[in-house]
Specification:
Blueprint: E1 3-7, E2 10-13, E3 18-25, E4 34-39, E5 46-51, E6 58-60, E7 68-73, E8 78-83, E9 92-98, E10 113-114, E11 118-123
Parallel strand pairs: 2-11
Antiparallel strand pairs: 1-3, 3-8, 4-5, 4-9, 5-6, 7-8, 9-10, 9-11
Length: 124
């Protein structure tokens, strides 16, 4: 059974940092793109960041560019999201996703495995 399990969420003050992790099990994703998305209450799920199979290509939504960094450790079958300079508008449930191809992107439809999410709350 394939599972993606996120961890590292929590409550942090504005300007603070958090590091999210997404551990995959059930199969290796070392040849697959991985991504992070987020969803705030009453809003659609939105793209945050994506990383190609070997980490050579990354892309970010403009709202997090320069503050968030996506990375991966294929030996551990894990992807990370380092979030710095957090803002109240970053408050959301954050979801990890894996796609069927080596190259990811911002569209939800590019991913076919999803985690259950971890809550990030940024207080002002």
């Amino acid at each position: 059974q394939v599972q993606l399990v996120e961890s590292g969420g929590g409550l942090v003050q504005a300007g603070g940092s958090l590091r999210l992790s997404c551990a995959a099990s059930g199969r290796t994703f070392s040849t697959n793109a991985m991504g992070w998305f987020r969803q705030a209450p009453g809003k659609e799920r939105e793209f945050v960041a994506a990383i190609s199979w070997n980490g050579g290509n990354t892309n970010y939504d403009d709202s997090v560019k320069g503050r968030f960094t996506i990375s991966r450790d294929n030996a551990k079958n894990t992807v990370y999201l380092q979030m710095n300079s957090l803002k109240p508008e970053d408050t959301a449930a954050y979801y990890c996703a894996a796609g069927p191809t080596p190259w990811g992107g911002p569209n939800v439809s590019l991913y076919n495995y999803w985690g259950q999410g971890t809550q990030v709350t940024v207080s002002s």
